[in-house]
Amino acid sequence: MIERRPLAQLGGDHLDWLDTRHHFSFAGYHDPRRMNWGALRVWNDDTIAPSTGFAPHPHADMEIITYVREGAITHEDSLGNRGRTEAGDVQVMSAGTGIRHSEYNREAGPTTIFQIWILPNRRGEPPAWGAKPFPKGERSGRFIALASGLPNDAEALPIRADARVLGATLKAGDSADYALGAGRMAYLVPARGKVEVNGVGLDARDGAAIRDEAVLRVTAIDDAEVVLVDAAP
């Protein structure tokens, strides 16, 4: 089963500093049919204006993954961490027992990100933050785990969840396969380019909620960059 969720039909909001689209219920957007997809709770598509961003605010008991599509995001938190994550790279914040953080666009132009929240499978642990560059060449034509709580994903940023976040870049006409385990749930969004997933067409930034598909074959219609979450039900 693959359910296409077109970008134009997503919830969201437009502020003077932020244009945001919500794949799942979030903030002022509520749809009881779109509360989560297994352990995946939030997928926000954010465009942040230059010299603006999310002021310091708290979180607890959530794994928050930021995938930067364009520009860069500058992170600061109550643990004393500070970092700048550029396009194509990923940062992970395990909110744990509680953390306060800010995320700003300090760049000259807009920054676009996917903000992904995954429910943790263990609680009561101290908060943590990490970031890592993932050169696109390393995931050309195949899926690479960027953040993961699953065994054997040693190169990925760790998260405290029964889930993994993967990325792939594909040239037009190329395909990449991903084996989805029995009972697992997947959510896929092309960051750029048009793709087909098992024959279902997706435009850039559309979502696809997927289950009961043993293997996903993603074929690029245009040069494409794809982000995929594989999560426990």
Briefly say what this structure is.
The chain has 233 residues and is mainly beta.
Q: Spans of 5+ residues with little confidence (pLDDT < 50)?
A: none
> What general outline do the C-alpha atoms trace?
globular
Q: Please tally the helical runs, counting DSSP H or I stretches of 4 or more residues.
A: 0
The fraction of residues in strands falls at: over 45%
Amount of helix: under 10%
* Beta strands, count: 22
Q: How many whole angstroms does the radius of gyration measure?
A: 16 Å
Let me know the largest β-sheet: 7 strands, mixed
Amino- and carboxy-terminal Cα gap: 14 Å
Strand order of the biggest β-sheet: 1-20-17-22-15-13-14
Based on secondary structure, the structural category is mainly beta
Topology as H/E string? EEEEEEEEEEEEEEEEEEEEEE
Tell me, rounded to a whole number, the average pLDDT.
97
Structural account:
This protein is an all-beta fold and 233 residues long. 0% of the residues lie in helices and 55% in strands. The protein has no helices and 22 strands. It has strands at residues 2-5, 11-14, 18-22, 40-48, 52-59, 63-70, 72-77, 82-86, 90-94, 99-105, 111-118, 128-132, 144-148, 157-158, 163-170, 175-179, 185-192, 195-197, 200-202, 207-211, 215-220, 224-231. It has a seven-stranded mixed β-sheet with strand order 1-20-17-22-15-13-14, with no helix packed on it. β7 and β8 (82-86) form a beta hairpin. The model has no long low-confidence stretch (mean pLDDT 97).
Task: Summarize the helices and strands and which ones pair or pack.
Elements: E1 2-5, E2 11-14, E3 18-22, E4 40-48, E5 52-59, E6 63-70, E7 72-77, E8 82-86, E9 90-94, E10 99-105, E11 111-118, E12 128-132, E13 144-148, E14 157-158, E15 163-170, E16 175-179, E17 185-192, E18 195-197, E19 200-202, E20 207-211, E21 215-220, E22 224-231
Parallel strand pairs: 13-14
Antiparallel strand pairs: 1-20, 2-3, 3-4, 4-11, 5-10, 6-9, 6-11, 7-8, 7-10, 9-12, 13-15, 15-22, 16-21, 17-20, 17-22, 18-19, 18-21
